[in-house]
From TrEMBL:
Lineage: Bacteria, Bacillati, Actinomycetota, Coriobacteriia, Eggerthellales
Protein's recorded name: tRNA-2-methylthio-N(6)-dimethylallyladenosine synthase
Cofactor dependence: [4Fe-4S] cluster
Annotated gene: miaB
Organism encoding this protein: Raoultibacter timonensis
Annotated keywords: 4Fe-4S, Cytoplasm, Iron, Iron-sulfur, Metal-binding, S-adenosyl-L-methionine, Transferase, tRNA processing
Role this protein plays: Catalyzes the methylthiolation of N6-(dimethylallyl)adenosine (i(6)A), leading to the formation of 2-methylthio-N6-(dimethylallyl)adenosine (ms(2)i(6)A) at position 37 in tRNAs that read codons beginning with uridine.
Compartments, record wording: Cytoplasm
Gene3D superfamilies xref list: Methylthiotransferase, N-terminal domain (3.40.50.12160), tm_1862 like domain (3.80.30.20)
Length: 462
C-alpha cells in the first residue's frame, strides 16, 4: 500500500454477529497499520465504516437511518479532508451492492463480505475524488485472517476457522451473503492460536457459522474434534467456540467437554424451535428428540455445562401447539441463556414464500411468554452456583462502579466482585481471580474475591 491515512481518524459501527465484530477488528488493524487513528464517535471520525447485518429486518432499517444521519454532521475541527468518507460493508453491502449508493448518494464506498482487504484501496480512491467505489465479490480471494487485527481486548481473541454456510435453513439469509462454507487449514488455525498464546491471550473463541462441519471441505479430515485437541495443545487457558449446528455435533466433540483441559463448560446450541413440524419447515434436519438426546449426552459428559440457544418465534404457520412444544423444550432443557427472535421475513429465502395468517399480536404474546420463561430458567440455573468459588477472567470495571470488577466464569456467566483494597479493576483486566459467589441473579453472579487456595480450580471444568 503506497498511500497512508496518517493524519486521518476512523470509527467502525458494527452490527450483528461475532464474525462481523471480528471482521471489524481486522478492518481496524488494517487502517491502523496505514497510520489512521481509531476514535469512538462519528463526530470525531474522518472515515466512518458500517459493518452491517441483514439477518433480521430491524438491522436493515437502522443502517439506513444511521447512514442518512451522517449527511449533515459537521466535520471535526482540523479534519484531514474536506468531507467525511462513509463506507458500508458486511452483509448488507454484499446483498445490495450498488443499489445502496442509489438510495444513499452521499455514501462513498460499498464492499462485501469477501473483500475486507480492498477497503483501504477503495477509501483512497474515494478520497481522491474518483466517485462511488463499489466492490462486491462472489467468493473470497483470501481468508480475512491474512489481514492484521486490532483486537478489542489484548487477552481475548476470536479465531475464524470456517467462513460461509452450506445449510440453507429456510428462514436464513446468511448462506446468500456469506457464501459456501470454506475451512482454513488446521496448520493455519493452530499457528494463529500459538501466536495468540505467545502474545499472552487467555481465551480463544473459534468462529464459524457452523463450526461442527469444520474440515468437511478439506476431504473430511481433520475434523472439528481434531482441531479442538490441537488448539488445547497450544496451552491456551480458555477455549470456546460458536456456533454449533445440532445436526453436526458429534460424540467426539461432546466427549471433549469432559476431557479437554481448556474447553470451557458452556455451549451455544441453537434449537430454533421445539416442534418437529416447524424444524422440518425450517430445514434444520434434526428432530426435537435428537436435540434432547444431545443435551442428555452433553450433561453426561459435563454435568455442570451451561447451555444457551437461539429460538425463533412466529415462523410462518407456527400454531399454538408448535409454540407449546418450544415452550416445553425450554422448560425441559433449563438453559442459562436463550436469545429469542421474532421471525423476520427475508426476501430470497424459501420461507419468504410461505403464506402466514397468524396475527402479529398472537406472535408477540407467544414471544413475551417465552421471554418470561427464559428469564425464570436463567435465574434458576444460576442458583446452583451460589456458594461456589469460580475462576473469573477479569474484563475490567463494572459499568456502574469502578470499584467492582466484571468478568466471565468458565460457564460464561458475568461475575461481579468488589476489588480488594489497593487494587484496581482496570489493572486486573486480563487476569484470573477467584470469586466466591454470594448472590445469583438472572443475568449475573455477584461475589467476593478470595485467595487462590480456596479451591477454585476444582469448579473449573467438568
Ligand atoms: N428471522 C428471525 N430470526 C432469524 N435468525 C436467523 N434468521 C432469522 C430470521 N429470518 C436468528 C436465528 C439464528 C440467529 C443468529 O438469528 O435464531 O440462530
Ligand atoms: Fe443461517 Fe442455518 Fe447457516 Fe446458521 S446454519 S447461518 S441459521 S443457514
Amino acid at each position: 500500500m503506497h498511500h497512508t491515512f496518517s493524519d486521518m481518524t476512523f470509527c467502525i459501527r458494527t452490527f450483528g454477529c461475532q464474525m462481523n465484530k471480528h471482521d471489524s477488528e481486522r478492518i481496524a488493524g488494517m487502517l491502523e497499520g496505514l497510520g489512521a487513528l481509531q476514535v469512538e464517535t462519528s463526530e470525531e471520525a474522518d472515515m466512518v465504516v458500517f459493518m452491517t447485518c441483514c439477518v433480521r429486518e430491524a438491522a436493515d432499517v437502522r443502517l439506513m437511518g444511521q447512514v442518512a444521519s451522517l449527511k449533515n454532521l459537521p466535520l471535526r475541527e482540523g479534519a484531514a479532508i474536506g468531507r467525511r468518507i462513509i463506507a458500508v460493508g458486511g452483509c448488507i453491502g454484499q446483498r445490495d451492492g450498488e443499489k445502496l449508493t442509489r438510495e444513499l448518494p452521499h455514501l462513498d464506498v460499498v464492499f462485501g463480505t469477501h473483500n475486507l482487504g480492498s477497503l483501504p484501496k477503495l477509501m483512497e480512491r474515494a478520497i481522491g475524488g474518483e466517485g462511488h467505489q463499489i466492490e462486491v465479490l462472489d467468493s473470497a480471494e483470501t481468508f480475512p485472517t491474512d489481514l492484521p487485527t486490532a483486537r478489542e481486548h489484548s487477552w481475548a481473541a476470536w479465531l475464524p476457522i470456517t467462513i460461509g454456510c452450506n445449510n440453507f435453513c429456510s428462514y436464513c439469509i446468511v448462506p446468500y451473503v456469506r457464501g459456501r462454507e470454506k475451512s482454513r487449514s488446521l496448520e493455519d488455525v493452530v499457528a494463529e492460536a500459538k501466536a495468540y498464546v505467545d502474545a499472552g491471550v487467555k481465551e480463544i473463541t473459534l468462529l464459524g457459522q457452523n463450526v461442527n462441519s469444520y474440515g468437511r471441505d478439506l476431504y473430511g479430515a481433520p475434523r472439528f474434534d481434531d482441531l479442538l485437541d490441537a488448539i488445547d495443545g497450544t496451552g491456551i487457558a480458555r477455549l470456546r467456540f460458536a456456533t454449533s449446528h445440532p445436526k453436526d455435533l458429534t460424540d467426539g466433540v461432546i466427549e471433549r467437554f469432559g476431557t479437554l483441559r481448556s474447553l470451557m463448560p458452556a455451549l451455544h446450541l441453537p434449537v430454533q424451535s421445539g416442534s418437529d413440524r416447524i424444524l422440518e419447515a425450517m430445514n434444520r434436519r434434526y428432530t426435537r428428540d435428537h436435540y434432547l438426546e444431545l443435551i442428555a449426552k452433553l450433561r453426561k459428559a459435563c454435568p455442570d455445562i451451561a447451555l444457551s440457544s437461539d429460538i425463533i418465534v412466529g415462523f410462518p404457520g407456527e400454531t399454538e401447539k408448535d409454540f407449546e412444544d418450544t415452550y416445553r423444550l425450554v422448560e425441559e432443557v433449563g438453559y442459562n441463556q436463550v436469545f429469542t427472535f421474532i421471525y423476520s421475513k427475508r426476501e430470497g429465502t424459501p420461507a419468504a414464500s410461505i403464506e402466514d395468517s397468524t396475527p402479529r399480536e398472537v406472535i408477540q404474546e407467544r414471544f413475551d411468554r417465552l421471554v418470561d420463561l427464559v428469564q425464570d430458567k436463567a435465574w434458576q440455573s444460576n442458583q446452583s452456583d451460589k456458594g461456589k468459588t469460580v475462576e473469573v477472567l477479569v474484563e475490567g470495571a463494572s459499568k456502574r462502579d469502578s470499584g467492582i470488577l466484571a468478568g466471565k466464569s468458565p460457564k460464561n456467566q458475568t461475575v461481579h466482585a468488589k476489588v480488594s483494597a489497593g487494587q484496581s479493576a482496570e489493572d486486573l483486566a486480563g487476569s484470573f481471580v477467584n470469586v466466591r459467589v454470594d448472590e445469583a441473579k438472572t443475568w449475573y453472579l455477584a461475589g467476593t474475591v478470595v485467595d487462590a487456595d480456596e479451591g477454585a480450580r476444582g469448579s473449573d471444568g467438568c
